[in-house]
Amino acid sequence: MSKQLIAGNWKMNGSLAANQALLSALAAGASGATCQVAVCVPAPYLAQVQGLLTGTAVAWGAQDVSQHEAGAFTGEVSAGMLREFAVRYCLVGHSERRQYHGETDALVASKAQRALAAGITPIVCVGETLAEREAGRTEEVVKRQLAAVIHTNGHCISEIVVAYEPVWAIGTGKTASPEEAQHVHAVLRSQLQAATTHPERVLILYGGSMNAANAAQLLSQPDIDGGLVGGASLKAPDFLSIVAAAR
Ligand code: PGA
């Protein structure tokens, strides 16, 4: 099993000045990390992040990518453009994209395909809403979301990262219990096992109100291979304590 991955998702936060301070602290604090570390930042900051993180232990990524290669798609950013800033990762299908921008399973699957074709690792986000959980549909929903990505990406599927983010836990302070999260991760793991001969390569991250206090317990579950961290990734000490809790 590879090292765990702790990835920050800054969402639509940051400024040149604030990023400079945060990135310098992360680069210094993560230098001896035993896990892999990354930050997924707003696209306009990729040049700054590349400048400050090249040669450090912290990798970087984007938060979205266009499903198109190039052309008349105003406002979109292509995988090829991201690649020019040496991004290693790209979030796809974050629940905020699915919810506020109407991203479907099929669209998320083609975004993952674009990223893979450009040599970028897509971090494919899946997760159920509160209503879906209460209706007992959690497994069905996450399996359907992942199945679309498996269907479109076939033999490349061992190159993706999966992030299980229950929508009701994102930014709410409510975390899935380690046992609840582990259960869903095990479901996703067996789905991947059936789809690739190298399921062990696929990291399955947990996301949703992960913080310095709850990270160690979540990260000690057998099928939790890291974290996708929103709010707590904006404060260097908080993010670095999560990094320290990973293996
Ligand atoms: P949160 O966000 O850690 O603030 O809950 C996680 C995410 O949306 O990726």
Write the layout of secondary structure elements.
Layout: E1 5-9, H1 16-29, E2 36-40, H2 46-53, E3 58-62, H3 79-84, E4 89-92, H4 95-100, H5 105-117, E5 121-126, H6 130-134, H7 138-153, E6 161-164, H8 178-195, E7 204-207, H9 215-219, E8 226-229, H10 236-245
Parallel strand pairs: 1-2, 1-8, 2-3, 3-4, 4-5, 5-6, 6-7, 7-8
Bound molecules: 2-phosphoglycolic acid.
Explain this structure to me?
Strand 7 (204-207), helix 9 (215-219) and strand 8 (226-229) form a beta-alpha-beta unit. The chain has helices at 16-29, 46-53, 79-84, 95-100, 105-117, 130-134, 138-153, 178-195, 215-219, 236-245, and strands spanning 5-9, 36-40, 58-62, 89-92, 121-126, 161-164, 204-207, 226-229. The mean pLDDT is 97. It has 10 helices and 8 strands. By secondary structure, it is an alpha/beta fold. 45% of the residues are buried. It has an 8-stranded parallel beta barrel, surrounded by 5 helices. The structure holds 2-phosphoglycolic acid.
SSE-based structural type: alpha/beta
Topology pattern, helix = H, strand = E: EHEHEHEHHEHHEHEHEH
Bound molecules: 2-phosphoglycolic acid
Share of helix, binned: 40-55%
The number of helices is: 10
Using the CA coordinates, give the radius of gyration: 17 Å
Stretches with pLDDT under 50, minimum 5 residues: none
Instruction: Give the oligomeric state of the chains in this entry, treating copies of one chain as homo and distinct chains as hetero.
Output: single chain
Q: Sketch the major β-sheet.
A: 8 strands, parallel, barrel
Strand elements, count: 8
**N→C terminal distance:** 11 Å
Strand order of the largest sheet: 1-2-3-4-5-6-7-8
Principal-axes shape call:
globular
Mean pLDDT: 97
Strand content: 5-15%
